[in-house]
Write a structure and sequence with these properties.
Elements: H1 6-19, H2 32-39, H3 43-55, E1 59-62, E2 66-69, E3 76-80, H4 91-98, E4 103-114, H5 117-123, E5 130-140, E6 143-153, H6 154-157, H7 175-181, E7 186-197, H8 200-206, E8 213-223, E9 228-237, E10 241-245
Parallel strand pairs: 3-10
Antiparallel strand pairs: 1-2, 4-5, 5-6, 6-9, 7-8, 8-9
Amino acid sequence: MPEQPPYLRIADVLRRRIAEREWMPGGRLPSRAQIGQECGVGENVVRRAQELLISQGVLEGRAGSGTYVAEPRRRVRVVRSSAREQRDDSPFRADMQAVGRRGDWESRTEAKVPAPTEIAARLGFGEGDLCVRTVYEFLADGKPVQLSTSWEPYDLTAGTLVVLPEGGPHAGAGVVNRMAAIGITVSHAVEQPEPRQATSEEASLLGIQKAALVTHIRRTYYSDQGRPVETADIVVPAALCEIVYEIPVDRH
C-alpha cells in the first residue's frame, strides 16, 4: 500500500486533536511553524493540511489573523422530490420554514441567449439556439445557501405569459406549473448529482472557502412528449446544506 502523503497525515492529526477538544470551536490554532515543529514537517505541509480541512468546513481561515476551528453550523435540509413540485408555494420556502428560517431568492433573467454546447445537448437542439437563462441565488434568512442557473428553449415560451420565469402572472411558480399554464405537461425530471469543489465565483457568492465541497446537480425537466423543456445547474454547498431525496413508491 502506498504511503499516505504527509499533508493528509497532518490533516488527520489536526482533525483528531479537534475531536479530542484540544482546540475548541472558535479557537485559534497554533502557528504553522509550531504545528510543523510538533509534527516533524515543514510549514508548507501544514498549510496544505489546513487548506484541506478548510475546504471540508472543519477549519476557517481569517485573513491577517490565523486559522480557527470552525463553529458548528446547523445545515439547511434541501429536499429533492417530484411531489413537492406540485405545491402552490415554492418547495425551497417550505424547506426553510421547516427549519425555522425565511426562504427567498434573487434572480436575473436574460432572453435570447445562445445555448452553449453542453446545454444544447441537454435540451436536444443545436448549439447556439436561443434560450432564456435565469441565474438564481437562494437565500435563508437573507444569506445565500444555494445557486442555480436555469435554461429554457426560447421557442417554447416566446410570446407567452411565462417567457420570463420570474415575471408576469406566473412569476416564481416553478417549471411544472408555468409549463402547465401554456398547455405543456411536465411528466418527469432527471437529476445527476456529483461532488466537486466550488469555483472562485461560487465560493464568493455563497460565502464559503474557495474549493470547498459542493454538490453539483444537473437537472432536466421533460414533457410527456419526451421533449426537454428546462435544464439547470444547481450548486449546493456541503457545509451549508444537506440533500435529501424523496422517492415515490409504486404500490402496483
